[in-house]
Amino acid sequence: MNNVLLIDFGSTYTKVTAVDTEEGRLLGTADSYTTIETDVGDGLENALKKLHEKTGPLEYSARYACSSAAGGLRMITSGLVPELTAEAAYQASLGAGAKVLKVYSFQLTEDDLEEILQINPDIFLLVGGTDGGNTECILHNARMLAGVEFDFPVIVAGNRTAARECERILAGHEVHLCENVMPKFGVLNIEPARKKIREIFLNRIVQAKGLSKAAELLSGILMPTPSAVMKAMHLLSGGCEGESGIGDLIAVDVGGATTDIYSMADGMPKDASTVYKGLPEPYDKRTVEGDIGMRYSVRGIVEAAGLARICQLSGLDQDAVNALLDRLCSSPDLIPEKGSDLEKLDYALASMAIETAVARHAGSMEETYTLMGLTYVQSGKDLRHVKQVIVTGGSLIRTDRTGEIAAHAFASPAAPMSLRPIRADIRVDRKYIIAAMGLLSEYYPQIALRIMKKELVYDGYSE
Amino acid sequence: MRKKVLVMGVIGADVHAVGNKILYHAFTEAGFDVVNLGVMVSQEEYIAAAIESAADAIVVSSLYGQGELDCRGMREKCDEAGLKGIPLLVGGNIVIGKQKFEEVEVRFKEMGFDRAFPPGTPPETTIAALKEILHVEEEA
């Protein structure tokens, strides 16, 4: 027996997953409240106690963890043109598992600086200009930052011509130079910046977030939870040596405050009559909808979907919906009882959360008539042919209508230009293991992949 | 020395890709650093690309006759975006039907384009014009 413990310090729950790596099987999972105020170790102890009640006492040869506690990895980025380098910086930060609080483009102003200081991010990502291109903006922004007092590390990942000068301007601060996120026009190069963000998270943020006590108990890898999820989805999609993946996929994590969408697919136009517009998107793309969540961001769902659709899907009238929404806002830890109105409302909210978030994540198609005939203009990723949708998050795990809810990720005749999957298998993360498998994949990819293939069970819409 | 950077593409709802590729190769061969935006390019895309790459000139192609409409207001947008004085060049079948090119040229210059080239202009002509505008010395 060789057991590994995988820990996810979440903002609300600390989840533990035990795996026997010799037999390659999941031993059990459990969770308990995160205790960031006192010592995260307490919450971990409680979760372990619950786990061992189910599995019997276990010894671990290694403990690995990821964390989104204490606000997660909070970042601010600044770039030049909003759709170009600023977008590339945003993609790099999201891909590294960060929570991006603000994206600035063009030159930073004094007001911007006040805002930055107030937010006081964990990391600032400074970019702008292609290699050999514009240097004015990034140098200006470096000077603006240098003019105020701050304590966060800055990653410089813009025009390489200006990199060293930025470093000099910001002397006295923690500055990390990195390859340009957009070295040539239209070319995304976000992996180096992602890696740097994770490194800094490990070396610096873990201490700042009160996780260092927990880190002493660990054998390695502390990464932001979304980064672990990203790794897991990469593995599940692409496979590893000795085990094949399941191909292109979309993963949906509907949380209380945000909804995260991951896609593992190329998504570029397949035929010659389609022209692609805009910055190419990463193969492994993550988006976070900060206004879409089942409890703290419940109003955002209603705003995006419209009250009428929520009423229609839940079968409740407007007054009932409004009353329940008020209740949810005042007590976000409500969990619906079977057959209750809240359960019906949760069904509608989760469905619309998925529809909205996947529609925003996926690309869109536009028809244009040219003198050469009908032409299609695609922007963003074409996910119509993705055949696997993975869902996780309390509202999808603790319901027996998972398939019905998740089917709202699919393309709909009401929005024919949205490039969402036409039809896909739905798999649900009933045991909440995805982040844990992302951690495990760093050392035992084949076992992590096998466990995911087994534990992410088909639901509803499977053929 | 830094190569001169050109941003190029076919403007509007125009999908003529062949000439675009030929020009791209010709410009690159002539020693320019070329950002090719391909076909169906909007004014905003030229401008965004020119800002990020600190372009020295924008070269607009149009083959389908609607160039005059598509190019309108481009100079003003460049000014607005901080690209004041950036050389703008345009060429191809840039107007509808057979018109005297002298008159067409005047109209495009009034729109703020530095040069306009008639149909059938060989790449060498455009390259020579670019080198003149950007003060590129011919190698001895």
Q: Which tags fit this structure?
A:
heterodimer, A: 463 residues, Nucleotidyltransferase, domain 5, 3 domains, six-stranded mixed sheet, five-stranded mixed sheet, B: Rossmann fold, five-stranded parallel sheet, 5 strands
Q: What is this entry, summarized?
A:
The complex is a heterodimer of chains A (463) and B (140). With 463 residues, chain A is α/β, with parallel strands linked by helices.
Description:
The complex is a heterodimer of chains A (463) and B (140). Chain A has 463 residues and is of the alpha/beta class. Chain A contains 16 helices and 19 strands. Helices cover 37% and strands 23% of the residues of chain A. In chain A, helix 10 crosses helix 12 and helix 15 (434-440) packs antiparallel against helix 16 (445-455). Chain A is globular and about 60 Å long. Chain B has six helices and five strands, in the order βαβαβααβαβα. Chain B has a single domain, classed as Rossmann fold. With 140 residues, chain B is an alpha/beta fold. The mean pLDDT of chain B is 93. Chain A binds chain B through residues 80-81, 83-85, 128-130, 132-136, 182, 184-186, 275, 277, 368-372, 375, 377, and chain B through 2-3, 5, 7, 13-16, 33, 35, 38-40, 45, 48-49, 51-55, 64-65.
Oligomer: heterodimer
Total domain units of chain B = 1
Largest interface summary: A-B, 26 and 23 residues
Summarize the biggest pleated sheet of chain A. 6 strands, mixed
Secondary structure elements and their pairing?
The complex is a heterodimer of chains A (463) and B (140).
Chain A: E1 3-9, E2 13-20, E3 25-33, H1 40-55, E4 62-67, E5 74-79, H2 85-95, E6 99-105, H3 110-119, E7 123-126, H4 136-146, E8 154-156, H5 160-169, E9 175-177, H6 191-208, H7 212-217, E10 220-224, H8 225-238, E11 249-254, E12 259-264, E13 274-277, E14 284-289, H9 298-305, H10 307-314, H11 318-330, H12 341-361, E15 364-370, E16 373-379, E17 388-392, H13 394-397, H14 402-406, E18 425-428, H15 434-440, H16 445-455, E19 457-458
Parallel strand pairs in A: 1-4, 4-10, 5-6, 5-7, 7-8, 8-9, 11-17, 13-16, 17-18
Antiparallel strand pairs in A: 1-2, 2-3, 11-12, 12-14, 15-16, 18-19
Chain B: E1 5-10, H1 18-29, E2 33-36, H2 43-52, E3 57-62, H3 67-71, H4 74-80, E4 88-92, H5 101-110, E5 115-117, H6 123-133
Parallel strand pairs in B: 1-2, 1-3, 3-4, 4-5
